[in-house]
Design brief:
The structure holds 2 protein chains of 2 kinds.
Chain A (H helix, E strand, L loop, with lengths): L1 H10 L4 H18 L2 H15 L11 H18 L4 E4 L6 E11 L20 H6 L7 H7 L1 E12 L4 E10 L7 H6 L3 H9 L5 E5 L6 E5 L4 H14 L6 H9 L10 H5 L5
Antiparallel strand pairs in A: 1-2, 2-3, 3-4, 4-6, 5-6
Helix pairs in contact in A: 1-2, 2-3, 9-10
Chain B lengths: L17 E3 L13 E8 L10 E5 L4 H12 L6 E6 L11 H8 L4 E9 L4
Parallel strand pairs in B: 2-5
Antiparallel strand pairs in B: 1-3, 2-3, 4-5
Classes of the chains: A alpha+beta, B alpha+beta.
């Protein structure tokens, strides 16, 4: 219904002022309900109307997404940051993927009393290095930290024309984390904002390519934190890698670290 | 910056490690515990009246972001984002001293900040 109204408005558009007015009207309607599908369609219509892309556009076409990922992955390879590209067989679609083992306090998990000795075999050197009390025995390691497995996917969203971060989280014995557990593991820097509106930030979604349940960081306000960075880069005549900038912002929210070297070592695509 | 520098009245009383930068340098030192940070607003973020701050090297990005948020009196629903090198958001756990080593120039670290509703 809303799209029909937009089409009727568009048919009478002649001047940039009309475009702006229509955009404002649609924006007001869409942002009221934050309907993601409509928002995506709104974006597509507006992009179509805008004709040539605004140089500091917050949107990313799929080709540029892939190029940015390629450059990102090259640096990941150099510093052994663990990212890889997963191609969907028979298509030209794919995504970036990384798995991380993350120590957390046992009290974080609901079933802390079930932390058993068999977990010690799965604790990697990296995880043990993170344990402060290095002289403690394995029993102590088990008591101080439990280990979570986070798997992050960077996908391209055709409807939003931007990347989206999906992830799934589980304990080492394969138990998926609940939504509440995932929320409570959000970095404290973002927790207050998250508490104000948890349902519109981090939700469970079906992975668009794998069809499995994942968590997702909502993308529809991506432009609010991307636009300033894009404008800044443009003002300085610097080209930036969209994926590096975007992931550096969204990653830490869900405990994904993006080392500083990405900022200087990854170039922008041509 | 010297340890006995006066804090201006607008400095948060519970944040002695972030102080308004004195106009005089007390002398170059490799062991300076504080670094100079220049905060620049982008987008529709409010501009801070005091832009130059002396911050302890060990201070984290998160702690600095909290300081700026309180200073600007942001709402709880607003998220502050900080960028280094124009287009990279450092991890909230990153120490500003490390950022200064990587990206500081002319004796200061320039950080851009913006605010948004961010999610949803």
């Amino acid at each position: 219904m809303l799209i029909c109204a937009v089409v009727l408005e568009l048919s009478s558009i002649k001047t940039p002022q009309h475009v702006k007015r229509t955009r404002d009207l649609v924006q007001a309607k869409v942002s009221g309900g934050c309907s993601h599908k409509l928002r995506g369609q709104y974006n597509e219509i507006m992009m179509f109307m805008a004709g040539e892309r605004n140089p500091a556009s917050c949107y990313l076409d799929e080709r540029t997404f892939r190029l940015c990922c390629q450059l990102f992955l090259q640096h990941s390879e150099t510093i052994q940051d663990g990212w890889s590209w997963e191609q969907i067989k028979g298509t030209d679609e794919g995504f970036m993927k990384k798995t991380v083992l993350m120590p957390v306090k046992p009290s974080f998990l609901h079933k802390q009393h079930e932390c058993s000795m068999q977990d010690e075999n799965m604790v990697t050197d990296d995880v043990q290095a993170n344990v402060e009390d290095e002289t403690a025995g394995v029993q102590a390691v088990c008591e101080i930290h439990a280990v979570l497995r986070y798997e992050y996917h960077v996908l391209y969203s055709c409807s939003y024309q931007i990347p989206v971060l999906y992830f799934r989280a589980s304990t080492l014995d394969g138990r998926p984390l609940s939504l509440e557990e995932v929320w409570s593991n959000v970095h404290p820097n973002y927790r207050q904002r998250l508490q104000k509106g948890p349902w519109d930030t981090l939700t469970q979604q079906e992975h668009p390519l794998l069809g499995q349940p994942f968590f997702m960081l909502h993308p529809c306000r991506t432009e609010e934190f991307m636009k300033p960075a894009l404008d800044l880069a443009q003002a300085e005549n610097k080209r930036m890698n969209y994926i590096v900038t975007w992931l550096s912002v969204v990653g830490p929210v869900v405990r994904l670290d993006v080392p500083l070297s990405y900022s200087t070592e990854v170039s922008a695509p041509d | 910056m010297s340890d006995n520098a006066e804090s201006p009245t607008e400095t948060q009383k519970d944040d002695p490690s972030i102080q308004h930068a004195a106009t005089e340098h007390t002398g170059a030192s490799d062991e300076k515990k504080k670094i100079d940070v220049l905060l620049k607003a982008v987008g529709d973020a409010p501009i801070m009246k005091t832009k130059k701050w002396s911050v302890e090297r060990g201070r984290t990005v998160q702690s600095l972001a909290q300081f700026i948020s309180r200073f600007l009196k942001l709402e709880a629903s607003e998220q502050l984002f900080i960028y280094v090198n124009q287009s990279f958001a450092p991890s909230p756990d990153q120490e500003v001293g490390v950022l200064f080593e990587c990206f500081g120039s002319d004796g200061k670290l320039v950080l851009h900040y913006c605010k948004s509703q961010a999610w949803g």
